[in-house]
Amino acid sequence: MQIDIDFGKSHVFVFGGTSGINYGIAEAFAQRCAYVSVASRKRENVDAAVTTLAGHRAQVRGMCADVRDFDAVGAAFEDAVSQFGPIDVLISGAAGNFLCEASSMSANGFRAVVDIDLIGSFNVMRQAYPHLRKPGASIVNISAPQATVPMRYQAHAAAAKAGIDQLTRVLALEWGADGIRVNAISPGPIDGTEGFRKLIARSELASAEAAVPLRRFGSTDDIANLALFLASPYASYVSGAVIPCDGGGAIDSVKPALERAGALMTSGT
Ligand code: NAP
Ligand code: COA
């Protein structure tokens, strides 16, 4: 079943949109005739994403920028807007993560994740602001369950994602008068993605999946469908919301698998 919303000629910018969940979101908009811009750090990822997205006969533009570099983020928006005009939909989903106990995490390791996830999200939204369609733009940040559920080995990502949730709510307040909606999606475990591979112990997969209330891991389409809804007129009165898309509290099931992966890593096995 497809969600039939036509995003024809809308400009959709996906920061961190060259792989995984965010790429899935970019693809969903490309399939619905949007003009799609994607940006991330690595040229090879940007080029590959542009090539495959263009296969949907969408107009696509790709830019290299690290979300930690405020000026580079601004330049990426200038470039995209010069091509496709004001931004109707902004997805901010760049993130980095690794499993490590706080007691052995370096200050730079903590900073790297907070810089990418939280400060990067600020940089993306702040630099996009002058280019957002007013009224009408919709921003969707990508959060994570660690924002509200404490998890061992995730001090950096948990702190950063909690910050993203609150940034989402504050900017929804401040930018509502411009007619800009700001929301976030908190994905559960999404099969086949880098975050899933990095964070969940192989040995625990079957029990983790069985413990998801809906009895399956998520797909990138599950997240893209929610992003389509949030970007659409059907969500025109939804702002400041952080919406889980996780099979029904799936984090309770994944927490042991994630913590087992962290324990294995810490013990060097
Ligand atoms: P992913 O495939 O590693 O995607 C991360 C994307 O961000 C890539 O396009 C990457 O491309 C880009 N990126 C990374 N660091 C960047 C930086 N400093 N500046 C600009 N771009 C950067 O990860 P994923 O697992 O799909 O996760 C996507 C989002 O969903 C993240 O926000 C993650 O926290 C969230 N999430 C994932 C899961 C899950 O199960 N996978 C669950 C909950 C939440 P480059 O390497 O080219 O920069
Ligand atoms: N355990 C402990 N510390 C780690 C680590 C790990 N597995 N991986 C990185 N670090 C530390 C490094 O040692 C470094 O600290 P130091 O200078 O004190 O030694 C710090 O983190 C930064 O590492 P670096 O490799 O220089 O950072 P980077 O900016 O190149 O990469 C990461 C950022 C570490 C988040 C990297 O994992 C990344 O780019 N991830 C993107 C993809 C991703 O994680 N996707 C999943 C999203 S949920």
Helix content: 40-55%
Class inferred from helices and paired strands? alpha/beta
Main β-sheet: number of strands, strand sense, barrel status? 7 strands, parallel
Number of helices: 9
Work out the number of β strands: 7
Low-confidence stretches: none
For the biggest β-sheet, the strand order reads 3-2-1-4-5-6-7
N- to C-terminal distance: 43 Å
Percentage beta strand: 5-15%
How many discrete domains?
1
Characterization of the model:
- The chain has a single domain, classed as Rossmann fold.
- The chain starts with 10 loop residues before the first strand and ends with a helix.
- The protein is globular, with a radius of gyration of 18 Å.
- The protein has helices at residues 20-30, 43-54, 70-84, 107-128, 155-175, 194-199, 205-211, 220-231, 251-266, and strands at 11-15, 35-40, 59-64, 89-92, 138-142, 181-187, 242-245.
- It contains nine helices and seven strands; from the N terminus they run βαβαβαβαβαβαααβα.
- It has a seven-stranded parallel β-sheet with strand order 3-2-1-4-5-6-7, sandwiched between helices.
- It is α/β, with parallel strands linked by helices and 269 residues long.
- The longest helix has 22 residues, at 107-128.
- NADP nicotinamide-adenine-dinucleotide phosphate binds at residues 16, 18-22, 40-42, 45, 66-68, 93-96, 116, 120, 142, 144, 187, 189-190, 193-196.
Précis, in short:
This protein is α/β, with parallel strands linked by helices and 269 residues long. The protein is built from 9 helices and 7 strands, in the order βαβαβαβαβαβαααβα. It has one domain (11-199, 218-248): Rossmann fold (3-Layer(aba) Sandwich), CATH 3.40.50.
